[in-house]
């Protein structure tokens, strides 16, 4: 843990240049490595009751949405599994992750104080005839080739939060170190073969792998046991929320609680925080 201070250069604003002191839940070396490698592994960060409450909440959402999912689904040999979206709108255990310091403080250390939620979704994969894994992919697919002179490189940090142990039964996760900085190529489309220089993680439940949104990654197949994970994602305030899953619900938990939320929460939810 260390402190990092960022002062916003907004001196023309009457109350001066706001200074943000961040208690970063990582060492300086971890932050430097994250910048260079495009990923940061935090083992067993979520424990005990907190971990159980997240598993419980995700199981309830899977139960509630399962029928609709099955009804709209065609038979396939291979799929990503079940990806419930907009989780913060659906359960207080998820809304509580909005300001989760071990993730948020690292996002602010890397991207500055002005960050917002890009989304919180889940991924639940099951063993069975259909292979459930993901091909190589990256999350920020907005880079053009060649890079235009005034291209704004988007940054985003995705915390891959594992609620079950990752192993041969559930499926490890693989990332390619340094790939976040490759702006001239994309991951091999639809492929699942090993990529040279990949690292593969088998980690205990409650571990988090933070990745830059451009980092190439993939989940290996779930072979023998159900596997549950969450993706908690932040970008600078001036980027948009994730397009996946369509518009945010207007009648969920966030709509109900918005009036009583503080300014920090509102900014984190995409309301202001830039000029
Ligand atoms: O399940 C995992 O380990 C990663 C999932 C993933 O990359 C995704 O859903 O975008
Ligand atoms: Fe992903």
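^ structure tokens above, recovered residues below v
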């Amino acid at each position: 843990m260390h402190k990092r201070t960022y002062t916003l250069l907004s001196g023309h604003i009457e109350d001066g240049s706001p200074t943000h002191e961040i208690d970063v839940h990582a060492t300086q070396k971890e932050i430097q490595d994250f910048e260079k490698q495009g990923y940061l592994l935090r083992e067993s960060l979520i424990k005990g009751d907190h971990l159980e409450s997240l598993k419980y909440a995700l199981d309830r959402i899977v139960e509630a949405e399962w029928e609709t999912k099955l009804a709209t689904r065609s038979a396939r040999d291979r799929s990503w599994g079940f990806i419930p979206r907009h989780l913060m709108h659906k359960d207080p255990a998820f809304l509580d992750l909005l300001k989760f310091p071990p993730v948020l403080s690292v996002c602010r250390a890397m991207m500055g104080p002005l960050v917002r939620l890009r989304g919180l979704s889940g991924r639940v994969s099951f063993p069975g005839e259909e292979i459930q894994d993901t091909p190589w992919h990256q999350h920020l697919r907005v880079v053009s080739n060649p890079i235009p002179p005034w291209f704004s490189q988007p940054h985003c940090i995705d915390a891959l939060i594992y609620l079950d142990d990752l192993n041969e039964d559930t499926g490890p996760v693989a990332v390619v170190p340094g790939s976040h900085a490759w702006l001239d190529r994309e991951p091999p489309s639809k492929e699942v073969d090993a990529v040279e220089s990949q690292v593969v993680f088998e980690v205990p439940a409650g571990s988090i792998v933070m990745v830059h949104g451009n980092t190439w990654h993939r989940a290996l197949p779930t072979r023998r046991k159900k596997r549950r994970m969450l993706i908690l994602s932040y970008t600078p305030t001036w980027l948009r929320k994730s397009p996946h899953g369509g518009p945010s619900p207007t009648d969920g938990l966030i709509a109900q609680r918005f009036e009583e939320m503080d300014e920090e929460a509102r900014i984190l939810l995409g309301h202001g925080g830039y000029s």
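The radius of gyration is 19 Å.
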